[in-house]
Amino acid sequence: MNKTYFIETYGCQMNVADSELVESLLQKEGYTKASQLDKADAIFVNTCAIREHAEEKVHSQLGRYDLIKKEKPETIIGVLGCMAQSLKHDLLENRPFVDIILGPDSYRRLPELLRRKTEDSKSLVDTTLSRFEVYDDLFPSRNEGVNAWISIMRGCDKFCTFCIVPFTRGRERSRSVDSIIAEATQAVQDGFSEITLLGQNVNSYSHDQMDFHHLLDDVAQVPGLKRIRYTSPHPQDMTDELLKTMAKHDTICNYVHLPLQAGNDRILKRMNRTYTRDHFVNLALRIRDYLPNVGLSTDIIVGFPGETEAEFQDTLEVMEILKFDSAFNFKYSPRRGTKASEYDDQVDENVKQDRLVRVIELQKKHTLERNSELVGSIQTVLVEKESKRSSAQWAGRTDSNKWVIFDKEDVQIQSMVQLQITKATGISLHGELVKQAEAA
Ligand code: 5AD
Ligand code: SF4
What we know:
- By secondary structure, the protein is of the alpha/beta class.
- It has 13 helices and 21 strands.
- The chain has helices at 13-28, 52-71, 82-86, 88-94, 110-117, 165-169, 177-189, 212-219, 240-248, 265-271, 277-290, 309-322, 349-372, and strands at residues 4-9, 32-33, 42-47, 76-81, 100-102, 124-126, 147-151, 153-154, 173-174, 194-198, 206-207, 210-211, 227-231, 255-257, 295-302, 326-331, 378-386, 393-398, 403-407, 416-424, 429-438.
- Strand 5, helix 5 and strand 6 form a beta-alpha-beta unit.
- Bound molecules: 5'-deoxyadenosine and iron/sulfur cluster.
- 5'-deoxyadenosine binds at residues 50-51, 162-163, 259, 261, 299, 301, 330, 332-333, 335.
């Protein structure tokens, strides 16, 4: 009988890529995709443990699955990914309806566990972390779109004191260049225009004496690729060679996500970020030297344990110096098992909230300033999807990673167009078609 699956994905792009791997494993087992969650024979949730808020969302979904399971007891419920890894015991105890629990390095076991599940009534669990698993030979089953995610390394060895990732995803390991190039080539054949190379610390990539900039140089030569992006790098591994490689190839997007986290040296040290504020600022300036008009974004955590008002202001100051194009801002969220969660000077929730509002406000101002600088300029945009606001308009990105909204006219999705920027908002740009650079 034809069995169906439904998979919901929370968290980072790495999880999106992992879910595509899982889909490919399920399809090999003869499963097809269900149109709706409550129609599926097997429901999976790929989970994120990075902050409490991410876990809460998954918990509320699990409540829904419980109801489905009560109505249709034969439905298989699977919890995958980072929460499976970090909350295995909690899930086993408090969510008895969960049939399968698999950590990020155990997806290969899914077909076997699904088969076993038909005979076995207890929960089947595998959260072993591997030093080697990179799913090298497994090609993901991608949904339609313009961008293909390609995972090039897994895990993290940096151990920032706030972060759960080294515990849920294990040690750093990289895939071979050959298999990455093969996957990128396949993605082009499957009709994707853009690829994004993914890794928890993407620029720590290292395989057989090939570093990240070597890999990027090779990927940039894959015929037919219009754009290459990568995320997320660590400032510590941002080498001049990498910046030179980015400058050398037009297809490598002029965009760097450079997570600051905090702008104060004592806090950075307590976070184990391995750089100082001056080092970070100089690095950002060097990036702008190598890559004129680069889009620069960041991650900021406010209210890390012990952060005083003056130390928080150092973060605002770095923001003022660099004026990022955009920022992802978070309140520090204690994660069980991490070093920072044990510090006894946790910051009050109201203080965190107040600081979050202040960084968001400042960033809004900077984003608008940066976006406004582009008004009047001509930008090359890859057409990616319909605008959320209007079906008569497209949304596409500049290579510096800014969304531009413009009238569809006779332009096709996946084409590169030249747009004159007419308006800037705090979120995106608006543009008018100049001429079509190339057809899709
Ligand atoms: N609390 C808040 N933010 C966190 N991040 C990682 N761990 C935590 C945490 N415990 C943020 C960091 C990281 C981004 C992916 O998530 O800013 O760069
Ligand atoms: Fe987490 Fe730090 Fe590793 Fe990023 S580098 S995944 S923030 S431990």
